[in-house]
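batch job 7 of whatever, protein = L,D-TPase catalytic domain-containing protein
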Amino acid sequence: MKLIFSLVLIVLYTINIVLSSQQTYPCPFYRSLSLTNPPMNGDDIYILQSLLTRTTGLENLSLTSNFDQDTQMALAKFQSLNNVGTTSGTLDVNTANLILELNSEDGYVDNGQIPSGFLYKVHVPVYKNRSIETIATLYDSNLNVLLTFPVRTHGQNDNVTGLAENEFCEDGSTPTGLMTFDLNSPEPDPISFGPYPINRAVQGITGNAAIVISNIRDGILMHTGEWPDWTPSQPMPNSHGCVHGHPSDIDQVQTILSTQLNVAIRQNTYGAMPYTHQPQGILSIELID
Ligand SMILES: *[C@@H]1O[C@H](CO)[C@@H](O)[C@H](O)[C@H]1NC(C)=O
Ligand SMILES: *[C@@H]1O[C@H](CO)[C@@H](O)[C@H](O)[C@H]1NC(C)=O
Ligand SMILES: *[C@@H]1O[C@H](CO)[C@@H](O)[C@H](O)[C@H]1NC(C)=O
């Protein structure tokens, strides 16, 4: 009797695992989205609407953060164009996976310039495989190269799939695009963030950064750390969306900014919104493969 009971439990547990893995939405999505009255609302819907506008013919969809009738129609159109197997206009797991696969890339290309009014620019090329470290460049406002240094923009991995979380997830890869950037005093935790002033991504201007920074993802920084057991000959660790650099380089960046370019070290806002300082720099993150 006891044995049968245990077997039944094991079978039920297995069914539950299989069902729940099939039902798992890829972040930033976590729920079925459909037209309701009153409408569903949230950041996931804002991201969905933003991604839908990348499909030809859906460019004018309004970014309301509400799952309204226009969103249902746009989603149904996306489903029919891509043969999802339904044209219900409801976001299910398959549609969520497909829209992330097809519409996540922003096509952002660095224009080799710096918008007027900014004292510096950091350019970061990235590969789809964020485990590959790349060389960032620090420029002054006349686009003179002041420093080149290795960086890593890999966020957290998904616990279940083991794959890198995408740019729209809370702790995923650093988003691509153009964004304002500012020098802030050090974070209080030198183990995780290093002892030096950090640079904070403040406001996305174009690309994926414009969708999520900082209305949805805040605390995207460029920093280092006193990472346990790490030496500069090793790859840098995964971040929670930040740009990681070596301690000597992050120190040099803040030294160049504050002593050569007269960039002020602003009191760290620790992500409080709205950002209270005028950003002094620009961060440009560009996919190169
Ligand atoms: C989007 O809006 C623009 C400007 O109003 C208009 O010219 C264009 O035809 C619209 N596109 C679609 C697909 O509706
Ligand atoms: C991504 O890059 C890392 C570091 O170069 C490499 O070890 C890994 O195999 C790559 N992953 C894929 C899927 O290519
Ligand atoms: C993933 O793992 C981390 C660290 O172990 C844990 O804090 C987090 O809650 C896990 N997330 C999920 C969705 O299981």
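notes: Residues 120-287 form a domain with the L,D-transpeptidase catalytic domain-like fold (CATH 2.40.440.10).
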